[in-house]
Design a protein that fits this description.
Bound molecules: alpha-D-psicofuranose, manganese (II) ion
Structural class: alpha/beta
Number of strands: 12
Helix content: 40-55%
Distance between the termini: 56 Å
Order of helices and strands: HEEEHEHHEHEEHEEHEHEHEHHHHHH
Largest sheet: 5 strands, parallel
Strand content: 5-15%
Shape: globular
Oligomer: single chain
Radius of gyration: 21 Å
Strand order of the largest sheet: 6-8-10-11-12
Length: 398
Protein backbone atom coordinates (compact mmCIF):
# COMPACT_ATOMS: atom_id res chain seq x y z
CA UNK A 1 0.00 0.00 0.00
CA UNK A 2 1.46 3.41 -0.90
CA UNK A 3 2.25 5.71 2.02
CA UNK A 4 -0.12 8.56 2.70
CA UNK A 5 1.06 12.19 2.90
CA UNK A 6 1.23 12.15 6.70
CA UNK A 7 3.46 9.07 6.66
CA UNK A 8 5.71 10.42 3.91
CA UNK A 9 6.06 13.64 5.87
CA UNK A 10 6.88 11.81 9.12
CA UNK A 11 9.58 9.87 7.31
CA UNK A 12 11.07 12.96 5.67
CA UNK A 13 11.21 14.77 9.01
CA UNK A 14 12.83 11.77 10.68
CA UNK A 15 15.43 11.39 7.94
CA UNK A 16 16.24 15.09 8.03
CA UNK A 17 17.14 14.68 11.70
CA UNK A 18 19.37 11.63 11.30
CA UNK A 19 23.16 11.86 11.07
CA UNK A 20 25.37 8.85 11.50
CA UNK A 21 29.03 8.91 12.42
CA UNK A 22 31.42 6.50 10.71
CA UNK A 23 34.28 4.80 12.56
CA UNK A 24 37.70 5.31 10.99
CA UNK A 25 38.68 1.81 12.11
CA UNK A 26 35.73 0.31 10.22
CA UNK A 27 37.58 0.86 6.93
CA UNK A 28 40.75 -0.95 8.00
CA UNK A 29 41.61 -4.63 7.81
CA UNK A 30 40.51 -6.38 10.95
CA UNK A 31 40.17 -9.97 11.90
CA UNK A 32 39.54 -12.38 14.66
CA UNK A 33 42.03 -13.59 17.22
CA UNK A 34 42.85 -16.32 14.72
CA UNK A 35 44.07 -13.98 12.01
CA UNK A 36 43.08 -11.39 9.46
CA UNK A 37 41.67 -11.91 5.99
CA UNK A 38 43.15 -9.03 4.09
CA UNK A 39 41.11 -6.97 1.64
CA UNK A 40 43.01 -5.38 -1.22
CA UNK A 41 41.02 -2.14 -0.89
CA UNK A 42 41.15 -1.79 2.89
CA UNK A 43 42.45 1.48 4.31
CA UNK A 44 45.70 1.54 6.24
CA UNK A 45 46.43 5.23 6.68
CA UNK A 46 44.21 7.84 8.33
CA UNK A 47 44.01 9.61 4.99
CA UNK A 48 42.68 6.46 3.32
CA UNK A 49 40.14 5.95 6.12
CA UNK A 50 38.94 9.54 5.82
CA UNK A 51 38.79 9.22 2.06
CA UNK A 52 36.63 6.08 2.31
CA UNK A 53 34.40 7.79 4.87
CA UNK A 54 34.10 10.76 2.52
CA UNK A 55 32.94 8.39 -0.21
CA UNK A 56 30.26 6.94 2.08
CA UNK A 57 29.12 10.45 2.96
CA UNK A 58 29.00 11.44 -0.70
CA UNK A 59 26.55 8.68 -1.60
CA UNK A 60 24.45 8.73 1.60
CA UNK A 61 24.54 12.42 2.52
CA UNK A 62 24.12 11.74 6.23
CA UNK A 63 27.61 10.80 7.46
CA UNK A 64 29.54 14.06 7.80
CA UNK A 65 31.70 13.02 10.75
CA UNK A 66 34.25 10.29 11.44
CA UNK A 67 35.07 8.88 14.86
CA UNK A 68 38.83 8.75 15.38
CA UNK A 69 40.84 6.39 17.55
CA UNK A 70 43.73 8.31 19.07
CA UNK A 71 46.57 5.79 18.75
CA UNK A 72 45.49 4.58 15.35
CA UNK A 73 44.68 7.95 13.76
CA UNK A 74 46.63 10.51 15.79
CA UNK A 75 49.73 8.66 17.00
CA UNK A 76 51.48 11.96 17.77
CA UNK A 77 48.57 13.28 19.77
CA UNK A 78 47.43 16.89 19.45
CA UNK A 79 50.37 17.58 17.11
CA UNK A 80 48.54 15.51 14.47
CA UNK A 81 45.28 17.42 14.87
CA UNK A 82 45.84 20.22 12.31
CA UNK A 83 46.99 17.75 9.66
CA UNK A 84 44.05 15.41 10.30
CA UNK A 85 41.56 18.30 10.34
CA UNK A 86 42.87 19.61 7.01
CA UNK A 87 42.83 16.14 5.49
CA UNK A 88 39.25 15.53 6.66
CA UNK A 89 38.08 18.86 5.23
CA UNK A 90 39.73 18.08 1.90
CA UNK A 91 37.99 14.70 1.82
CA UNK A 92 34.56 16.11 2.68
CA UNK A 93 34.19 15.04 6.32
CA UNK A 94 34.95 16.30 9.84
CA UNK A 95 36.44 14.73 12.94
CA UNK A 96 33.78 13.22 15.18
CA UNK A 97 34.13 11.52 18.54
CA UNK A 98 37.64 11.06 19.87
CA UNK A 99 38.35 7.59 21.21
CA UNK A 100 41.27 7.38 23.64
CA UNK A 101 43.10 4.08 23.66
CA UNK A 102 44.06 2.76 27.08
CA UNK A 103 44.05 -0.89 26.06
CA UNK A 104 46.83 -1.41 23.57
CA UNK A 105 50.04 -0.51 25.35
CA UNK A 106 51.92 -3.17 27.31
CA UNK A 107 51.59 -1.18 30.52
CA UNK A 108 47.82 -1.81 30.45
CA UNK A 109 48.15 -5.57 30.85
CA UNK A 110 46.40 -5.35 34.22
CA UNK A 111 44.28 -2.33 33.49
CA UNK A 112 44.45 1.40 32.94
CA UNK A 113 42.43 3.62 35.30
CA UNK A 114 41.75 0.50 37.37
CA UNK A 115 45.36 -0.65 37.53
CA UNK A 116 46.69 -1.23 41.07
CA UNK A 117 49.92 0.52 40.03
CA UNK A 118 49.44 4.25 40.49
CA UNK A 119 52.08 5.00 37.83
CA UNK A 120 50.01 3.16 35.23
CA UNK A 121 46.85 4.93 36.36
CA UNK A 122 48.69 8.23 35.95
CA UNK A 123 49.82 7.28 32.43
CA UNK A 124 46.25 6.38 31.49
CA UNK A 125 45.04 9.64 32.98
CA UNK A 126 47.56 11.61 30.96
CA UNK A 127 46.42 9.88 27.77
CA UNK A 128 42.80 10.74 28.56
CA UNK A 129 43.69 14.38 29.19
CA UNK A 130 45.73 14.45 25.97
CA UNK A 131 42.69 13.02 24.17
CA UNK A 132 40.54 15.84 25.55
CA UNK A 133 43.09 18.29 24.16
CA UNK A 134 42.90 16.54 20.78
CA UNK A 135 39.11 16.85 20.86
CA UNK A 136 39.46 20.55 21.55
CA UNK A 137 41.99 21.00 18.75
CA UNK A 138 39.71 19.20 16.28
CA UNK A 139 36.50 20.84 17.45
CA UNK A 140 35.09 17.43 18.39
CA UNK A 141 32.31 17.44 20.92
CA UNK A 142 32.43 13.91 22.29
CA UNK A 143 35.10 11.86 23.99
CA UNK A 144 34.10 8.21 23.64
CA UNK A 145 35.48 6.19 26.50
CA UNK A 146 35.80 2.45 26.43
CA UNK A 147 38.03 0.69 28.95
CA UNK A 148 39.21 -2.88 28.53
CA UNK A 149 39.95 -3.01 32.26
CA UNK A 150 39.02 -6.11 34.17
CA UNK A 151 40.45 -9.34 35.52
CA UNK A 152 40.56 -12.93 34.39
CA UNK A 153 40.46 -14.98 37.57
CA UNK A 154 38.49 -14.74 40.82
CA UNK A 155 40.35 -13.16 43.69
CA UNK A 156 42.98 -11.48 41.52
CA UNK A 157 41.61 -7.92 41.65
CA UNK A 158 40.12 -5.67 44.30
CA UNK A 159 36.88 -4.75 42.57
CA UNK A 160 35.94 -1.93 44.98
CA UNK A 161 39.36 -0.29 44.87
CA UNK A 162 39.26 -0.35 41.08
CA UNK A 163 35.79 1.20 41.12
CA UNK A 164 37.13 4.01 43.28
CA UNK A 165 40.11 4.62 40.98
CA UNK A 166 37.77 4.77 37.99
CA UNK A 167 35.52 7.27 39.76
CA UNK A 168 38.47 9.51 40.54
CA UNK A 169 39.94 9.29 37.05
CA UNK A 170 36.67 9.97 35.25
CA UNK A 171 35.93 12.96 37.49
CA UNK A 172 39.40 14.35 36.75
CA UNK A 173 38.79 14.00 33.03
CA UNK A 174 35.38 15.61 33.36
CA UNK A 175 36.95 18.62 35.04
CA UNK A 176 39.09 19.10 31.92
CA UNK A 177 36.19 19.20 29.42
CA UNK A 178 35.71 22.56 27.76
CA UNK A 179 33.07 24.32 25.67
CA UNK A 180 30.24 22.00 24.79
CA UNK A 181 32.32 18.84 25.18
CA UNK A 182 30.82 15.67 26.60
CA UNK A 183 32.28 12.38 27.73
CA UNK A 184 30.47 9.16 26.87
CA UNK A 185 31.05 6.13 29.08
CA UNK A 186 30.79 2.84 27.18
CA UNK A 187 30.17 -0.49 28.91
CA UNK A 188 30.82 -4.07 27.87
CA UNK A 189 30.24 -7.25 29.88
CA UNK A 190 33.33 -9.20 28.86
CA UNK A 191 36.27 -9.34 26.46
CA UNK A 192 39.14 -8.89 26.72
CA UNK A 193 38.67 -9.65 30.44
CA UNK A 194 36.84 -12.89 31.11
CA UNK A 195 36.17 -12.85 34.84
CA UNK A 196 35.19 -9.30 35.71
CA UNK A 197 35.09 -6.08 33.68
CA UNK A 198 35.28 -2.77 35.53
CA UNK A 199 32.50 -1.12 33.51
CA UNK A 200 30.44 -4.19 32.66
CA UNK A 201 26.93 -2.85 32.18
CA UNK A 202 24.75 0.24 31.78
CA UNK A 203 24.17 0.56 35.52
CA UNK A 204 27.90 0.80 36.22
CA UNK A 205 28.37 3.22 33.32
CA UNK A 206 25.47 5.31 34.62
CA UNK A 207 26.89 5.50 38.14
CA UNK A 208 30.31 6.47 36.83
CA UNK A 209 28.85 9.07 34.48
CA UNK A 210 26.68 10.57 37.23
CA UNK A 211 29.61 10.72 39.62
CA UNK A 212 31.89 12.27 36.99
CA UNK A 213 29.71 15.33 36.35
CA UNK A 214 26.91 16.87 34.32
CA UNK A 215 28.55 16.48 30.89
CA UNK A 216 28.98 12.74 31.18
CA UNK A 217 26.54 10.36 29.51
CA UNK A 218 26.27 6.63 28.78
CA UNK A 219 27.22 5.15 25.43
CA UNK A 220 25.26 2.05 24.36
CA UNK A 221 27.16 -0.26 22.02
CA UNK A 222 24.45 -2.60 20.77
CA UNK A 223 26.90 -5.51 20.72
CA UNK A 224 27.80 -5.16 24.39
CA UNK A 225 25.02 -7.11 26.09
CA UNK A 226 24.24 -10.65 27.05
CA UNK A 227 22.14 -12.46 24.48
CA UNK A 228 18.71 -12.15 26.09
CA UNK A 229 19.09 -8.59 27.37
CA UNK A 230 16.34 -6.09 26.56
CA UNK A 231 18.35 -3.25 25.04
CA UNK A 232 15.36 -1.01 24.32
CA UNK A 233 14.47 -1.06 28.00
CA UNK A 234 17.99 0.14 28.84
CA UNK A 235 17.53 2.87 26.24
CA UNK A 236 14.15 3.85 27.72
CA UNK A 237 15.63 4.06 31.21
CA UNK A 238 18.63 6.09 30.11
CA UNK A 239 16.33 8.45 28.22
CA UNK A 240 14.14 8.95 31.24
CA UNK A 241 17.24 9.77 33.29
CA UNK A 242 18.58 12.13 30.57
CA UNK A 243 21.70 9.99 30.47
CA UNK A 244 21.71 8.51 26.98
CA UNK A 245 24.66 10.06 25.15
CA UNK A 246 25.11 7.90 22.10
CA UNK A 247 25.20 4.57 20.36
CA UNK A 248 27.76 2.35 18.76
CA UNK A 249 25.72 0.43 16.20
CA UNK A 250 26.56 -3.08 15.10
CA UNK A 251 24.82 -6.42 15.28
CA UNK A 252 25.70 -9.70 16.90
CA UNK A 253 24.51 -13.25 17.20
CA UNK A 254 26.78 -14.57 19.95
CA UNK A 255 29.18 -12.10 21.58
CA UNK A 256 30.59 -8.74 20.45
CA UNK A 257 30.51 -9.86 16.82
CA UNK A 258 30.63 -6.34 15.28
CA UNK A 259 28.48 -7.42 12.31
CA UNK A 260 26.72 -4.87 10.12
CA UNK A 261 23.78 -3.15 11.77
CA UNK A 262 20.46 -5.02 11.75
CA UNK A 263 21.94 -7.95 9.84
CA UNK A 264 20.77 -10.39 12.51
CA UNK A 265 17.86 -8.67 14.23
CA UNK A 266 16.34 -5.61 12.54
CA UNK A 267 13.34 -5.64 14.90
CA UNK A 268 15.71 -5.01 17.81
CA UNK A 269 17.00 -1.83 16.18
CA UNK A 270 13.46 -0.76 15.36
CA UNK A 271 12.45 -1.22 19.00
CA UNK A 272 15.38 0.94 20.11
CA UNK A 273 14.42 3.74 17.70
CA UNK A 274 10.80 3.34 18.76
CA UNK A 275 11.73 4.19 22.35
CA UNK A 276 13.51 7.31 21.16
CA UNK A 277 10.56 8.52 19.09
CA UNK A 278 8.20 7.65 21.92
CA UNK A 279 10.27 9.77 24.32
CA UNK A 280 10.30 12.66 21.86
CA UNK A 281 6.53 12.46 21.35
CA UNK A 282 5.79 12.36 25.07
CA UNK A 283 8.22 15.03 26.22
CA UNK A 284 8.34 17.30 23.20
CA UNK A 285 12.14 17.30 23.38
CA UNK A 286 14.58 15.65 21.02
CA UNK A 287 17.22 13.79 22.99
CA UNK A 288 20.80 14.73 22.13
CA UNK A 289 22.11 11.39 20.92
CA UNK A 290 25.29 10.68 18.93
CA UNK A 291 24.49 7.88 16.47
CA UNK A 292 27.75 6.17 15.67
CA UNK A 293 28.68 2.98 13.90
CA UNK A 294 31.18 0.59 15.47
CA UNK A 295 31.46 -2.35 13.11
CA UNK A 296 34.46 -4.20 11.81
CA UNK A 297 33.37 -7.35 10.07
CA UNK A 298 36.32 -8.70 8.15
CA UNK A 299 34.75 -10.33 5.08
CA UNK A 300 32.29 -7.86 3.58
CA UNK A 301 33.84 -5.05 1.56
CA UNK A 302 34.45 -2.29 4.08
CA UNK A 303 32.80 0.57 2.21
CA UNK A 304 29.86 -1.49 0.99
CA UNK A 305 29.30 -2.78 4.54
CA UNK A 306 29.22 0.79 5.79
CA UNK A 307 26.74 1.89 3.12
CA UNK A 308 24.61 -1.14 3.91
CA UNK A 309 24.56 -0.21 7.60
CA UNK A 310 23.63 3.40 6.88
CA UNK A 311 20.76 2.23 4.67
CA UNK A 312 19.57 -0.14 7.41
CA UNK A 313 19.68 2.66 9.97
CA UNK A 314 17.65 4.98 7.74
CA UNK A 315 15.09 2.29 7.02
CA UNK A 316 14.55 1.32 10.66
CA UNK A 317 14.55 4.93 11.82
CA UNK A 318 11.89 5.73 9.21
CA UNK A 319 9.79 2.74 10.24
CA UNK A 320 9.97 3.74 13.90
CA UNK A 321 8.84 7.26 12.96
CA UNK A 322 5.67 5.72 11.54
CA UNK A 323 4.35 4.25 14.78
CA UNK A 324 0.95 5.79 15.47
CA UNK A 325 1.67 7.25 18.92
CA UNK A 326 -1.91 8.31 19.73
CA UNK A 327 -3.24 4.90 18.93
CA UNK A 328 -0.46 3.15 20.78
CA UNK A 329 -0.99 5.25 23.91
CA UNK A 330 -4.71 4.44 23.85
CA UNK A 331 -4.12 0.74 23.46
CA UNK A 332 -1.50 0.74 26.22
CA UNK A 333 -3.87 2.58 28.54
CA UNK A 334 -6.65 0.06 27.95
CA UNK A 335 -4.20 -2.87 27.98
CA UNK A 336 -5.25 -3.91 24.48
CA UNK A 337 -2.28 -6.19 24.09
CA UNK A 338 -2.77 -7.40 20.54
CA UNK A 339 -3.67 -3.96 19.19
CA UNK A 340 -0.80 -2.26 21.02
CA UNK A 341 1.72 -4.75 19.70
CA UNK A 342 0.26 -4.43 16.22
CA UNK A 343 0.94 -0.69 16.31
CA UNK A 344 4.61 -1.59 16.31
CA UNK A 345 4.24 -4.44 13.84
CA UNK A 346 2.28 -2.31 11.37
CA UNK A 347 5.02 0.29 11.31
CA UNK A 348 7.79 -2.30 11.20
CA UNK A 349 6.27 -4.10 8.24
CA UNK A 350 5.67 -0.93 6.20
CA UNK A 351 7.88 -0.68 3.13
CA UNK A 352 9.54 2.70 3.64
CA UNK A 353 12.07 2.32 0.85
CA UNK A 354 10.11 4.31 -1.77
CA UNK A 355 9.81 7.20 0.72
CA UNK A 356 13.55 7.07 1.44
CA UNK A 357 14.31 7.13 -2.28
CA UNK A 358 11.99 10.09 -2.65
CA UNK A 359 13.72 11.86 0.24
CA UNK A 360 17.14 11.23 -1.33
CA UNK A 361 15.97 12.46 -4.72
CA UNK A 362 14.66 15.64 -3.12
CA UNK A 363 18.06 16.33 -1.60
CA UNK A 364 20.07 15.63 -4.72
CA UNK A 365 21.41 12.35 -3.35
CA UNK A 366 21.61 9.05 -5.20
CA UNK A 367 18.45 6.99 -4.76
CA UNK A 368 20.54 3.85 -4.41
CA UNK A 369 23.78 4.69 -2.55
CA UNK A 370 25.23 1.20 -2.98
CA UNK A 371 24.72 1.29 -6.72
CA UNK A 372 26.10 4.83 -6.88
CA UNK A 373 29.20 3.64 -5.06
CA UNK A 374 29.57 0.64 -7.40
CA UNK A 375 29.25 2.88 -10.45
CA UNK A 376 31.65 5.51 -9.12
CA UNK A 377 34.83 3.62 -10.00
CA UNK A 378 36.17 4.44 -6.50
CA UNK A 379 36.62 0.81 -5.46
CA UNK A 380 38.57 -0.06 -8.60
CA UNK A 381 40.81 2.96 -8.07
CA UNK A 382 41.63 2.28 -4.43
CA UNK A 383 42.05 -1.43 -5.10
CA UNK A 384 44.71 -0.63 -7.67
CA UNK A 385 46.36 1.88 -5.33
CA UNK A 386 46.30 -0.21 -2.15
CA UNK A 387 46.44 -3.87 -3.17
CA UNK A 388 50.19 -4.23 -3.08
CA UNK A 389 50.56 -2.65 0.35
CA UNK A 390 47.73 -4.72 1.77
CA UNK A 391 49.09 -7.97 0.38
CA UNK A 392 52.41 -7.28 2.10
CA UNK A 393 50.90 -6.70 5.54
CA UNK A 394 50.70 -9.43 8.15
CA UNK A 395 47.58 -11.58 8.11
CA UNK A 396 48.45 -13.47 11.25
CA UNK A 397 48.79 -12.20 14.79
CA UNK A 398 51.61 -14.64 15.50
C1 LIG B 1 35.24 -2.31 22.22
O1 LIG B 1 34.74 -3.56 21.90
C2 LIG B 1 34.70 -1.25 21.28
O2 LIG B 1 33.31 -1.40 21.15
C3 LIG B 1 35.06 0.15 21.74
O3 LIG B 1 34.08 1.07 21.34
C4 LIG B 1 36.32 0.41 20.98
O4 LIG B 1 36.64 1.76 20.88
C5 LIG B 1 35.97 -0.21 19.64
O5 LIG B 1 35.27 -1.39 20.00
C6 LIG B 1 37.13 -0.48 18.73
O6 LIG B 1 38.04 -1.38 19.33
MN1 LIG C 1 32.00 0.26 20.77
Amino acid sequence: MPLNARQADAIARALDSLSIELPSWGFANTGTRFGKFLQPAAATTTEEKLSDAGMVHRVTGICPTVALHVLWDLPNGAADAPRVAAMAARLGVRAGAINPNTFQDQIYKHGSLGNPDSAVRAAAMQHLLDSAAIATALGSRDLSLWFADGSNYPGTANIRHRKQWFSEGLAQLHARLSGNQRMLVEYKPFEPAFYHTDIADWGMALLFARAAGPRARVLVDTGHHYAAQNIEQIVAWLLSENMLGGFHFNDRRYADDDLTMASIDPYQVFRIFNEIFQFEWETGTRPDIAYMIDQSHNLKGKIEAMIQTVAAAQELFAKAALVDRERLAGHQQRCNLVDAENCLKDAFSTDVRPAIREWSRGRGLPEDPLQAFRESGYLERITAERAEKNAASASSYA
